[in-house]
Input
Amino acid sequence: MRKTLEKFNQLINNLLKDEAQRPVADHIPSEELYQTLDLSLNKDGISDEEFEKILKDIVFKTPRTATTGFFNQLFGGRNEKAVLGDLLAVTLNNSMYTYKAAGPQIGVEKVILREVCNIIGWDSNSDGAFAPGGSMTNYMSMVMARDAFDAEIRHKGSNQKMTVYTSAESHYSIPKNAAFSGIGRDNVRYISTDEFGKIKIGELKTQVEEDVANGFTPIMVNLTAGTTVLGAFDSIPEVREICDANNMWLHVDGAYCGAVLFSQKYKHLIDGIEKVDSFSFNAHKMIGTPLSCSIIVAKDKMSLQHSFSNDASYLYQTDHDEFNPGKTSLQCGRRNDALKFWTLWKSVGTEGLERIVDHQFYLADVARDYIRSKEDYMLYSYDDSISICFNYKGIPARTICTALYEHSKLMVGYGSFRDDEFIRLVTINAQNTKEDILNFFKTMETFVEEHNTLFDTKVQSI
Ligand SMILES: Cc1ncc(COP(=O)(O)O)c(C=O)c1O
Output
């Protein structure tokens, strides 16, 4: 193992050096992948030298998500304390179902969940769980909502006409989860949004009333704290009232931006969060831990127990349920996603997490100010969001994003809202500086100038 770790060190050191020179890995067209890299698996093994060479090739040609060139999705950067925690978690290789199998790591997980509940303002009746990603924490919320509506469904199944409500801008995991949980994709109601991408409360109310009149049973509203494209925050308090009036579960999907919870300056964006039934956020997005690190907390910890516990005498043999989180989680064997968040949180403190979040909004302001100061740009997104949506010189967003990718210049994606399609720059990597953001624009502008033939036919004046 020691020799392998030395090789690992060497490989990563070389990668870090290369990343500093070349923030974007060479693009390999998918149809050329198997000719470019030796990914084959064969009957015979290979020598250590060959193995190291192939591994280096793969590592160096893999998209670089920790650099100043990556703005493609809602994660990025490489926080060293969090990486250390994750490397340790892999090496320790505990499974997080029982105290017997994970010991202090269960405590690591529990203190994170406790502290998140404390920050929300919830008492010891609350608790939470880790799951592999925001889609899965959203899924857990829907299962809890279903079981809170009817505790028999988990035993007998259901043929009831349940409906769930979410905005048209919410994440695609909501309909998938409706399929998984037996509610059914057709029973998801997509409520339209205002010009800022926030759910329209009046329309939500009307739709719930209409469904009740038509014999459906509304069971849940999913709100979003940071919609995937615009980064908009749905308003919580009025929706709580609708849920109370109709006995519905209220979940806030904060996968993208729920970590504003840690910021004194921005937590007003989730005002009323203490009133929800469940809340999830991804530490691998705004907090910057490695993937994946998604947390769900529930105001009433019994809802987690009711929906996710199952006896298994071959597994739960010592200690109390409180220290056997297999009883409140989706999986059986479960990797330790908590340690990376704990190592980061422990080292920088809650105020350090706040600085991470605030810096992303600062970078977003830098980007918006730049766009607003230049005639060639058109801005489509709003303040208080770390998604900056824009078009440049009227070039179709998908054309420019794909060309930047294929020429290994920048990793950035596009999105749409209503009839507009635009580039979506996400300032989620808190290790970036103002210069890195300005450099993003400079790189893009220079690229367009140098490759005008790619864009000539499409450039329009705006
Ligand atoms: C609002 C929202 N919810 C849920 C998710 C899903 O999270 P994950 O990719 O961790 O499954 C995302 C992902 O971008 C998201 O933006």
Notes: The radius of gyration is 23 Å.
